[in-house]
Design goal:
Blueprint (H helix, E strand, L loop, with lengths): L1 H15 L7 H8 L2 E3 L2 E3 L4 E2 L14 E5 L3 E6 L2 E9 L4 E6 L21 E3 L4 E7 L9 E5 L6 E7 L11 E7 L6 H10 L1 E5 L6 H6 L3 E4 L5 E4 L32 H33 L1
The protein binds 2-acetamido-2-deoxy-beta-D-glucopyranose (NAG) (6 copies).
């Protein structure tokens, strides 16, 4: 019987495992929104002081609120200011924070997107800014930057993707929405920002929200549902109505606490069946044995 109890305990541990990714302590924090300036964000974003903890969003979508008004998102070590979040279309409008002061930069980085998480929206061109080149490139538009060793009029705008600085000191790729860029248009476009689309699998989220849960992310970057009651599932919280195909009548959410005893009953039934089987097998063997 002790082994039986142990077996029951092991079984109930296994039956709880899929639920452990959902945590009622996270229901409250994950139903809060990140708010900063005129930007507010829910799932799949997280971050902010006392706002959304890491379990409430994708690890690549941490927001920071600077000076209580600027929402900042960092992508592959480049800081972007978040201008708009369109939840329905999963579109994020961001602007390079480092280029807000103009096109001349000392610390130069490409606009790289984490391809597992983002796709760039149509309508933007990836152009390349070339800094401090040794020669004139008459085919390209030039601009001057007079600081930090970039004291040169030989800086150029390459209107498309251009790999590497080549013979220039540095290069940076930036996304702009101007087809034939001038310096002024590029500077304005860098301030206006660009749109990207996030690719977080949140198919389960509407169902979760409908069942009064709040969405979060598990360690495998999969969407999970955090419920007010323990005993939640990946498919939403245990509230009415039951998912299609379920044959049990609706039960109050607190039935999660009865899980142990219920499993025990089922196991006892199984044990009885097993004993009956062994018993009838034995009887049959004895009958066969004695009839010979
Ligand atoms: C928030 O304000 C900035 C300017 O401060 C503006 O560019 C942006 O479009 C605004 N975003 C929203 C969602 O209103
Ligand atoms: C733009 O092109 C550069 C290559 O020069 C690349 O490294 C970068 O990832 C591209 N950016 C986007 C957003 O596609
Ligand atoms: C830039 O170079 C010019 C001459 O080429 C020089 O007169 C000027 O002082 C330099 N400016 C800086 C900031 O180094
Ligand atoms: C662009 O290049 C031309 C020719 O080298 C030069 O005269 C002009 O001053 C440059 N313009 C800027 C904005 O640096
Ligand atoms: C969700 O909660 C609200 C109020 O807390 C309640 O009125 C509603 O019935 C709940 N919905 C479900 C599906 O349980
Ligand atoms: C989750 O996403 C982060 C950021 O995009 C990534 O670094 C990490 O490898 C991902 N984890 C898994 C298990 O896919």
């Amino acid at each position: 019987m002790n082994y039986f109890l142990l077996f029951v305990m092991i079984l109930s541990v296994f039956s709880e495992t899929p639920l452990s990714s959902s945590n009622p302590d996270l229901y409250g924090p994950c139903s809060k929104e990140f708010k900063c300036g005129n930007v507010s964000a829910g799932f799949p974003f997280w971050g902010g002081e006392d706002q959304r903890p890491p379990e409430c969003g994708h690890p690549g979508l941490q927001l920071q609120c600077e000076d209580n008004h600027a929402a900042i998102l960092e992508i592959l070590s480049v800081r972007y200011r978040v201008l708009d979040i369109k939840k329905e279309t999963k579109i994020l409008k961001i602007a390079r924070e480092d280029y807000k002061g103009g096109i001349c930069r000392h610390n130069i980085q490409n606009t790289n997107l984490d391809a597992t998480l983002f796709v760039s929206a149509p309508g933007y061109v990836n152009i390349t800014l070339l800094y401090d080149c040794p020669v004139d490139l008459p085919a390209l538009k030039n601009f001057s930057c007079g600081f930090h060793g970039f004291n040169s009029s030989k800086n150029f705008i390459h209107p498309e993707v251009f790999h590497g600085p080549m013979f220039c000191s540095a290069s940076a790729s930036v996304l702009v929405h101007v087809p034939s860029p001038t310096v002024e248009a590029i500077e304005q476009s860098l301030k206006d920002g660009f749109e990207i689309k996030w690719k977080v699998d949140d198919e389960r989220c509407p169902k979760c929200l409908k069942s009064n849960g709040s969405c979060g992310i598990d360690p495998g970057n999969k969407t999970v549902c955090h419920c007010q009651e323990p005993g939640s599932s990946l498919e939403g919280c245990p509230v009415f109505p039951l998912p299609p195909g379920a044959s049990q009548p609706p039960q109050p959410p607190s039935n999660a606490n009865k899980r142990g005893p219920k499993n025990t009953i089922n196991l006892e039934n199984a044990m009885n069946t097993c004993e009956k089987y062994l018993y009838s097998f034995g009887v049959r063997w004895l009958t066969t044995y004695f009839s010979q």
